[in-house]
Amino acid sequence: MASRLRVGEWRVAPELNSLERDGHSVHVEPKIMQVLVTLAERPGTVLSKEHILSQVWPETFVSEEVLTRSISELRRVFEDNPREPTYIQTIPKGGYRLLAPVVAEGMDTEMISTIWWERKEWGLVIAAVIVLLGALSFYFMNRRQHAASRGRISSLAVLPLTNLSGDASQDYFSDGLTDELTTRLAKISALRVISRTSVMQYKGGTKTAPEIARELNVDALLVGSVLRSRDRVRISAQLIEAGSDKNVWTESYERDLRDILALQADVARRVAEEIKIQVTPEESKKVFTARTVNPEAYDSYLKGAYYWEKFTDAGMRKAISYYQQAIDMDPNYALAYVGLADAYHELWDTPPREVIPKSRAASEKALQLDEGLPDAHSSLGWVKWIYYWDWAGPAGPRPGNNRNADFHASKDARRNDKRSEHSEKDSRSRLLDDQVVGSKLSL
């Protein structure tokens, strides 16, 4: 198979994970490209799902759902109707067949290898070097021109990462990483980042990048997918310029689960580098540095965050259970204490005198572990303000003083929404109980 090929109307560059037609380029994930290359190696032939899986994911167990999603993504790129396919045909109980004609471009790589090692023609070596230097020169010139032509990116939204595991019970993991990336990027004051609450409505949707960007009023979108296999995690990320719908940057990262925070830091660093946003030295320490985590504790933490977002009493109780599990596994996990504090605070069906002291204690423990943790200051500030009437006390970061006001205010907005769901009678009853707590629990 040639290094580059033409599939129907599309020029395919496997080494770049890109497809191009009429000057329009589309980037896909490496594994999706491998699926296409596997089909293109035997066009017109029905390939079983087992064969494709063994070629693309050797020695790795993945479900057929992962392959199905890869085929769906290729069909989306090709604008192919699965009922009347012109590119990829599904054969019931058989597999898939590539219908479009395939034409190889360039010399076969095996032939090049033979010439290189057996005949050692130095002219070919020199020509290859010249071609390589020319390609690199073109790449960097085109990169500079592209960077100069695109508009300044000062705002973005992290769209929900796609769960490629094929297991819906793993949604907590992909949703959690979406939230973690959003939180990390929101620490850059020069970059306006849209809150998780605003972007989750687009999960599984069909709107285009320009449509979403217009609705959210952002310059760019960070999209991608996540695949977890035991203790390994792979994230594929793509930064899309909203106005032109052009790909700015695409890359895949794979790490051990214990290094997941470093993976997130790498993604954030590349985004900052690509959009050339100003990052202060203090912000750089917070955004681009990371520690290793206890994989089991981190997993429990993400499950706690997943159930916290459901914002129900039952969800809060599950969140408390998972946050406590994370703390039991890693007693120095400051963010788990913050999650525990926030979950206790939002446990609406329990008298405040029973849960607010627990919320405050968890927040204070988080600050003992990490005095500079903004979420811990915010959590403790909320409790002091609402329940202890300490209006002059620390209330955490003040959202109005930076570009990410909507991001930092999102949790408070959800708290207010929760209260509005309850009846006026229940609210009055809770308020009276709150006043008792405020008057009797001293600072």
How would you explain this protein's 3D organization?
- This protein has 443 residues and is an alpha+beta fold.
- The chain has 4 domains: 2-105, Winged helix-like DNA-binding domain superfamily/Winged helix DNA-binding domain (Arc Repressor Mutant, subunit A, Orthogonal Bundle), CATH 1.10.10; 109-149; 155-288, 3-Layer(aba) Sandwich (Rossmann fold), CATH 3.40.50.10070; 295-440, Serine Threonine Protein Phosphatase 5, Tetratricopeptide repeat, CATH 1.25.40.10.
- It has 17 helices and 13 strands.
- The strands form 3 sheets. Strands 8, 9, 10, 11, 12 and 13 form a 6-stranded mixed beta sheet that branches.
- It starts with a strand and ends with a helix.
- The relative contact order is 0.07.
